[in-house]
Amino acid sequence: xxxxxxxxxxxxxxxxxxxxxxxxxxxxxxxxxxxxxxxxxxxxxxxxxxxxxxxxxxxxxxxxxxxxxxxxxxxxxxxxxxxxxxxxxxxxxxxxxxxxxxxxxxxxxxxxxxxxxxxxxxxxxxxxxxxxxxxxxxxxxxxxxxxxxxxxxxxxxxxxxxxxxxxxxxxxxxxxxxxxxxxxxxxxxxxxxxxxxxxxxxxxxxxxxxxxxxxxxxxxxxxxxxxxxxxxxxxx
Length: 236
Hints:
The protein is an alpha/beta fold. Helix content is about 35%, strand content about 15%. It has helices at about 20-25, 30-45, 65-75, 95, 105-110, 115-120, 140-145, 145-160, 175-180, 195-210, and strands at about 5-10, 50-55, 80-85, 120, 130, 160-165, 185-190, 215-220, 230-235. A nine-stranded mixed beta sheet has the order 4-5-3-6-2-7-8-1-9, sandwiched between helices. It is globular and about 45 Å long.
């Protein structure tokens, strides 16, 4: 019941693929739904300027990385200077999605082996830069909770209008909870037909205990034949 307080539902079929459909097919119905999610996020925090958004999920294979990357694209298409950060330091995928190398990235910045400005890379999409994960570290949680993470965010705010983080699933590791209270908002991705209610509620509770500002929930992998509409439920 608690999840009904703030829900963003994405009925797009096949959104677990890593294709940037919002770039390849910007006029497609699925791309339009990503733009609708973007608008709903903006309306969910009218009085506050959202500078950083964290995208997470309850468990693996629920489409969080695809959702995060496409949200980065549609925000860049709106004219914002966007930085996409792959903060999934256990199973990073952004370097594949955006066809980048991963020799340097978030981990090398956090360990002071490189600076943010020399490590971010432009993508082929206007206004969108990416910070890949970098080499997978033995201590992801410690890096994300370090003072360097705070300094990275402060520097990113100076150069970008919006920073979008792709983080590991909430129920798998503590990384998302650590980063949640450093971001202005959090979006939780769940999968239709595979995420059970108890897991979704537990993920929401863990984020709330970490003082995350939950902007909404994206219901992913919803078959189009089940519904021809895009729903937004809001309220208190």
